[in-house]
Amino acid sequence: MVQWSATQPAASSGSMQASGAGRARAPRGATPHSSSRRTHSRQIAFTGRRQANAAVPRVAAPGRRAAVPAADNVVPDSDKAPKSRPGATSRRPVGAGPRATSSPGPATRADRDKRLQAVGPVGANLMMHLVLFPSCAGASMFRRPRLGSRRGATIVEFAVAIPVLFFMTLGIVDLGNLMLARQRLVQATYATGRYAAQGAALVTDAEVAARARLALSTQGQPVDGLEVTVTRGVSGPDNIVTVQLSLPVQAAIGFIDIPTIQTQSFTFREEGA
Predict the structure, then answer these.
(1) Quick check: 59 and 118 in contact, CB under 8 A?
(2) At 269, which helix (H) or strand (E)?
(3) Between the ranges 72-81, 119-128, 218-227, where is the mean pLDDT highest?
(4) 16 to 25, 96, 124, 237: CA distances (angstroms)
(5) 220-248: b (≥16 Cβ within 10 Å) or e
(6) pLDDT of res. 161
(7) Which pTM does this prediction carry?
(8) Distances (CA, A) of 117 to 17, 113, 114, 125, 178
(9) Beta partners for residue 240, in sequence order
(10) pLDDT-derived band at 144, boundaries 50, 70, 90
């Protein structure tokens, strides 16, 4: 090892300018090769920092894997740090082997923190992606089955449900027709009873029956099979008359237990002499 003596003359200003402007002077007590080793260590640290930045996982769209080249974590043998002297402090390059990747140095951790701060939280990026691109995010996060796989199940479900829906529709139509016929029969019976209450001396039973058919026809109700019954009697000091109308109603579904013959009656006090 060559010793650096204090009596050795310092380098001239011309030689320092020739070696490069801005290069720091070697401290006292340092070896002549310390500056070259320091420069080589800085180059290795810069290379490791650049590879560490490239090794940081990039934030990609939800559901997609960040593309990181596998060759970024490999450091050539020429860039590896030389063996340091005993007692000297040197920073281990980042990316030189699995240990360096698993436990990075202080410089790499700081660079990684800065990079994550610039990118932002992963949750915020995910929510922003869902807000800006809802269709793309839904397509990537939730996989939807193909329509072809549900085609057979849909046909079976339709074949089972269509008869039930068909009979339910017919039942609703029948109930509606029966309720409408009953309401028309009630109004026709009331009008016929008021007509028959004039007295037996003024109206006959045949005229009462004709009046009932006219009242139903006016409302648009068929009168086929209509039966009109007129009963006159005495209740105390007054004479009364009872009018009963029976009308069959045709149902669309015959095997359902629904009364198809509607009957309605009213009783009035005779007003005639």
Answers:
(1) no
(2) strand 261-269
(3) 218-227
(4) 9, 35, 54, 148
(5) ebeeeebebebeeeeeeeebebebbbbbe
(6) 94
(7) 0.43
(8) 42, 6, 5, 12, 76
(9) 233, 269
(10) low
The end-to-end CA distance of the chain, in Å, is: 154
Contact indicator for 144, 212 with CB cutoff of 8 Å: no
What whole-number distance in Å separates Cα of residue 68 and Cα of residue 58? 7
Contact by Cβ (8 Å): 201, 272:
yes
Sort residue 270 into left (φ over 0), alpha (ψ -120 to 50) or beta. Answer: beta
Work out the angle at residue 142's Cα, subtended by the Cα atoms of residues 137 and 148, and round it to the nearest 5 degrees.
120
Contacts of residue 95, Cβ cutoff 8 Å, sequence gap at least 6: 48, 51, 52, 55, 72, 73, 74, 75, 101
Q: Which residue has the tokens 């070896």?
A: 31
User: CA of 15: how far to CAs of 2, 10, 31, 51, in Å?
Assistant: 21, 10, 18, 36
**Residue 265 in this model has a pLDDT that exceeds 60:** yes
8 A C-beta contact, residue 126 and residue 62: yes
CB atoms within 10 A of CB 67: 8
Q: Hey, what amino acid is at 184?
A: R
